[in-house]
C-alpha cells in the first residue's frame, strides 16, 4: 500500500468527538500515523503476518491492519474507544 493511500484511508476514520482528559485520550491524526508506521515498517520492521497489540485503540492499530498485520488486538479502558475502533474496522473491511 502506498503512503498517500494509507493516509487517505486513515482520514476517513471516526475520531473521538469528546476525548476524556482523565484518560489522556488524544487522536493521532492520519498524516502522523501513516508516516510513523509507513517509515517504521519499510525501514525496519515488517508486520505482515504478525499479531499487533494496540494499547489505547486508535489510528495506529487500524493502520497496522491495513498494512497486513495478521491480527490486531485493541486494548483500551474506555468502552467508547473500543466501539469506535470496531466501527472503523468494519468501514475498512478489516478485523480488529
Structure in words:
With 96 residues, this protein is mainly alpha-helical. The chain is built from 4 helices and 2 strands. It has one domain (3-91): Rossmann fold, CATH 3.40.50.150. It starts with a helix and ends in a 5-residue tail after the last helix. The mean pLDDT is 84. The chain has helices at 3-10, 30-43, 59-66, 79-91; strands at 51-55, 71-75. InterPro entries: rRNA_MeTrfase/Polyamine_Synth, SAM-dependent_MTases_sf. Pfam families: PrmA. GO terms for molecular function: rRNA (adenine-N6-)-methyltransferase activity. This is Ribosomal protein L11 methyltransferase.
Helix-strand blueprint:
Blueprint: H1 3-10, H2 30-43, E1 51-55, H3 59-66, E2 71-75, H4 79-91
Parallel strand pairs: 1-2
List keywords for this structure.
rRNA (adenine-N6-)-methyltransferase activity; Rossmann fold; 4 helices; 45% helix; 96 residues; rRNA_MeTrfase/Polyamine_Synth; mainly alpha
Spatial arrangement of strands, main beta sheet:
1-2
Estimated helix fraction: 40-55%
Architecture (CATH level 2) name: 3-Layer(aba) Sandwich
Give the domain tally.
1
Note the run of SSEs as H and E: HHEHEH
- Total number of β-strand segments? 2
What amount of the residues lies in strands?
5-15%
What's the CATH first level? Alpha Beta
Computed structural class: mainly alpha
* CATH fold annotation: Rossmann fold
Give the end-to-end Cα distance, rounded to a whole number of Å: 19 Å
Organism: Zingiber officinale (Ginger)
GO molecular function: rRNA (adenine-N6-)-methyltransferase activity
Protein name: Ribosomal protein L11 methyltransferase
InterPro entries: rRNA_MeTrfase/Polyamine_Synth, SAM-dependent_MTases_sf
Amino acid at each position: 500500500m502506498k503512503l498517500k493511500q494509507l493516509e487517505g484511508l486513515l482520514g476517513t476514520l471516526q475520531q473521538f468527538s469528546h476525548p476524556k482528559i482523565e484518560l489522556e485520550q488524544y487522536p493521532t491524526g492520519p498524516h502522523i500515523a501513516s508516516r510513523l508506521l509507513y517509515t517504521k515498517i519499510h525501514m525496519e520492521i515488517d508486520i505482515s503476518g504478525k499479531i499487533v497489540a494496540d494499547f489505547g485503540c486508535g489510528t495506529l492499530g487500524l493502520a497496522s491492519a491495513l498494512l497486513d498485520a495478521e491480527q490486531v488486538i485493541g486494548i483500551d479502558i474506555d468502552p467508547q474507544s473500543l466501539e469506535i475502533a470496531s466501527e472503523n474496522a468494519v468501514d475498512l473491511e478489516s478485523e480488529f
